[in-house]
Specification:
Blueprint: H1 2-12, E1 17-19, H2 20-25, H3 30-39, E2 42-46, E3 49-52, H4 61-70, E4 75-76, H5 79-84, E5 95-99, E6 111-115, E7 123-125, E8 128-130, H6 133-139, H7 146-158, H8 164-174, H9 177-189
Parallel strand pairs: 5-6
Antiparallel strand pairs: 1-3, 2-3, 4-5, 7-8
Length: 190
């Protein structure tokens, strides 16, 4: 029972997930992991990734699972970062995960793996490795309308996801000429 308590402690802090490597580091053997799966305490959701069967789901579970399934060094990317934070009204069909390594294992169809940019430094949001919101906004400018991105910049700044200097830069990039003229026209009439 003490071995499962170790697994539970790891998984409780990680959206109910534990990897094979984390279990080994905690001193749990592969035989014990298989026994926990057979007992119904863990569910194998992919190669080397297990989930607690008794776990209260959160809105971030699918993002954490996608990153864990892709493997070490992986992080959320592009529109998936925006979707995780409910920015720009995006709802991608697949969760995009960037990986620094080639991924050869079979993954579920709802995960899209892209090569990681070597210059990009991932951050963490809600404990999930992720591209920064500012970089995700920049990356999404080819696929998301500028009006939505401009609104997303305001929302991200209000939520503290981007700093003031980044907000100013992104507002300039995503602002529409008609928006600026409407705002200034409204300001002069007051």
């Amino acid at each position: 029972m003490a071995r499962f308590d170790d697994i539970y402690e790891i998984a409780a802090d990680n959206y109910g997930l534990v990897t094979f490597a984390e279990a080994l580091d905690a001193g749990v053997t592969s035989v014990e992991l298989r026994r926990f799966v057979k007992d119904g305490r863990l569910e194998r959701i992919g190669q080397g990734v297990y989930k607690l069967t008794r776990y209260i789901p959160t809105p971030y579970d699918q993002y954490a699972e996608a990153v864990a399934l892709v493997g070490p060094g992986a992080y959320l990317h592009g529109e998936s970062v925006l979707a995780m934070h409910d920015l720009a009204l995006v709802n991608p069909l697949k969760i995009s995960v960037a990986s620094p390594k080639r991924v050869r294992k079979k993954l579920p169809g709802w995960i899209s793996v892209i090569p990681a940019n070597n210059t990009e430094i991932p951050t963490n949001y809600e404990g999930i490795p992720s591209q920064s919101v500012a970089d995700a906004l920049q990356f999404s400018k080819k696929s998301v309308m500028k009006e939505r991105l401009a609104d997303a910049v305001q929302d991200a700044a209000r939520e503290g996801l981007i700093d003031e200097a980044t907000e100013v830069t992104l507002r300039k990039e995503f602002s529409q000429p008609w928006r600026l003229s409407n705002q200034t026209a409204g300001a002069t009439s007051i």
